[in-house]
Design goal:
Helix content: over 70%
Order of helices and strands: HHHHH
Radius of gyration: 14 Å
Largest sheet: none
Structural class: mainly alpha
Number of strands: 0
Length: 105
Amino acid sequence: MKNEEIIKTIKDTYSRDIRKQLVKSVIKNEKDNDKEAIESSYKVVDQIFSYVISELGWTFSSDSNSWNDTPLQIMLEVFPNIDKTKWFEEKLLQVKSSISLKGGK
């Protein structure tokens, strides 16, 4: 599936208000350090992120020079301000550490 199709599908499935509210909830839960609420909101975001990865057929490249951040860019397109969440930061760190590990082999 092409990036634009994935973005359209998510936007058609989740209204703009729902997407905005999800990001606001994640940010609020992180700020309040409400572990249960954080876990719950992360589950929803992770399910959508898993869908994006699955539809892209995306995997971590064994060559870190050819890696791209398409799944995270799609999430950012669909969920403005998600890059201000700890969820997004954690995903970036996971990717960077995976690249470092694979690049060092």
